[in-house]
Amino acid sequence: MTAALRVVVADDQALVRAGFRMILTADGIDVVAEATTGVEAVDAVHRHRPDVVLMDIRMPDMDGLAAARQILTGVGEAPRIIMLTTFDLDQYVYAALTAGASGFLLKDVTPEQLVAAVRLVRSGDALLAPAITRRLVQRFAQHDTDPPAIHRDLSALTPRELEVLGLLAHGLSNAELAGRLHLSEATVKTHVARILAKLGLRDRVQAVVVAYRTGLVSP
Q1: What does pTM read for this prediction?
Q2: Residues 110-128: pLDDT tens digits?
Q3: Which positions fall inside the Response regulatory domain (predicted)?
Q4: If I label 104, which of 8, 48, 139, 208 is the partner at 20 to 30 A Cα–Cα?
């Protein structure tokens, strides 16, 4: 029997926490703790070792970004973190993604989208719609007046892996990658896994950020 998916909900608004708990619990997901500040969120993660954290960006004492950084740089296997925001182009979301968060959700997310998102990141995938990925990365990458050349770390990738990474940066799903490259989805997943391993990345979100920041893909 598969173990229940364990989640911590961190948000300073009681109604948001209650609503998310109700939605997740109804789908068989175990909300092991709630937090109202970033400090509480870090403590809850240390005590309960959840699979996923739903983390509001703006909270008292310690904001969600600082809390996410502490959690993701801690000892042991870190949970997947989904940032919660009111605005889909919040600069703090971009900072969170570069720090290792697995994606973000708007607070007006539907129940179906919330459940799907939590299950998606738990499986190791990333949570960013292709259009939002491009808008988010392009908005903040364009502030670099001198776009960097391809980073030497990318030299570890094969030509096919570079091609896959470039397409990932344009928001293509595994199914779309398979169709574009005339490969099976299983082969695409293998390529993606090797890219993440070679570059030391947690998931596809970080791969997208790296593709833009290294100049492999231009905003």
Answers
A1: 0.72
A2: 999 899 889 888 876 666 6
A3: 6-122
A4: 48
Place of tokens 């990932």: 168
Among candidates 96, 149, 116, which has minimal Cα distance to 27? 116
Confirm whether 23 is domain-assigned. Answer: yes
116 and 174 inside one domain? no
DSSP state of 171: T
d(CA 63, CA 55): 9
Quote the percentage of the chain above a pLDDT of 70. Answer: 81
Largest CA distance in the chain: 53
Residue ranges making up the domain that contains 28: 6-127
Structure tokens at 5: 């998916």
The rounded distance, in Å, linking the Cα atoms of 168 and 185 is 14
Residue 121 belongs to some domain of the structure: yes
Q: Are strands 30-35 and 6-10 parallel, antiparallel or unpaired?
A: parallel
